[in-house]
Design goal:
This protein is mainly α. It has 5 helices and no strands. The protein has a single domain (4-94), classed as MazG-like (Helix Hairpins). The two termini are 18 Å apart.
Length: 97
């Protein structure tokens, strides 16, 4: 299935949340002295969304920038303890299934 890689990424993100290591994603999901974890993640989503817009307007790097936006959106869902299947069910609901 094409969703296999998304599921694998999601599992890694869940593991980084549940078993933090010194990694980019673990650090984003931890509060620090300067910012709350959720604020850090939301800022990244905002940055990535802007980069998608610029990439589209410039006709360059749209796929990698879109992947970054999707990655950070998945990271937020993991941080908020939302199961990946909830996202898939929402897409199915929108398709009338």
């Amino acid at each position: 299935m094409k969703d296999k890689v998304i599921r694998e990424v999601y599992k890694v993100l869940e593991d980084r949340r549940d078993n933090p290591i010194d990694s980019y994603t673990s650090n984003l999901m931890k509060d620090d002295n300067q910012k709350k974890a959720e604020d850090k993640i939301l800022e990244k989503i905002g940055e990535e969304a802007a980069e998608v817009i610029i990439a589209s307007k410039n006709d360059e790097r749209l796929v990698p920038e879109a992947a970054d936006l999707i990655f950070h959106s998945l990271l937020l869902l993991v941080y908020k303890n939302i199961e990946l299947d909830e996202l898939f069910h929402e897409f199915e609901r929108r398709r009338g299934r």
